[in-house]
Amino acid sequence: MSLVDNYLAGLRKALPAEQLDELQPAHGASAADIQRLAERYPLCPDSLLELLGHIDGTHYRDYPAGKVLVLVLGSDVFEYPYYLSSVDQILEESVDYTRSIAQIYAGYLDTEPDLVGPGIDVSLGMHERLCFSHCMNNGGTSRLYIDFNPAAGGKVGQVVRYLHDPDSYKVIAPSFDQYLQQLIDDDYAFVFEDGDY
């Protein structure tokens, strides 16, 4: 069983019955869509491509059998679970968000030492990072990225969490595989019963 198969099996056990039912219409991305994503991000981890091959997004994602809106990922901020973005949503984000952290926070980087954690290149356009997830309030509070161009001390493929108010960027896993394994090891702590959000 692959890491992704293991992750999805555990997720289906962890999700409340109602959320599991809401996930039923989901299907995997097409081979052509997976190829488009791999061409845009050549270093995209195989495990993310495999995950999208099972479920092509859970964030207001319209499938032929119905809309899917299910929180299937987490981070180090447990009160904010996350949706999985579809291939189309990932590629749209790669066009829309091109400014760097340095441009977004011009004049604040020197006065806010906790804004950016080690291993993150503030000069890199955000579109060069693969945004694979938005949090429960549609990304306004938090997003998750795979970072292929780290600063010194970082690792290619590290997972970066953006958190809003107070804003911060932090590496939460050295790879997407390790990120999924952390969620498994934490026993899917981001899953709440309906009404607990």
The strand line-up of the biggest sheet is 3-4-5-6-7
Structural category is: alpha+beta
The whole-number mean of residue pLDDT values reads: 93
Outline the biggest β-sheet.
5 strands, antiparallel
The overall number of domains is 1
CATH topology: SMI1/KNR4-like
CATH architecture: 3-Layer(aba) Sandwich
The count of DSSP E runs of length 2 or more, i.e. the number of strands, is 7
Separation of the first and last Cα atoms: 32 Å
What would CATH call the class? Alpha Beta
**H/E element string?**
HHHHEEEHHEEEEH
Keywords:
two-stranded antiparallel sheet, single chain, 7 helices, alpha+beta, five-stranded antiparallel sheet, globular, 197 residues, SMI1/KNR4-like
Description:
This protein has 197 residues and is an alpha+beta fold. It has a single domain, classed as SMI1/KNR4-like. 31% of the residues lie in helices and 17% in strands. It has seven helices and seven strands; from the N terminus they run ααααβββααββββα. The strands form two sheets. Strands 3-4-5-6-7 form a five-stranded antiparallel β-sheet. A two-stranded antiparallel sheet has the order 1-2. A hairpin with a 6-residue loop joins strand 4 and strand 5 (142-147). The protein is globular. The chain starts with a helix and ends in a 12-residue tail after the last helix. The mean pLDDT is 93.
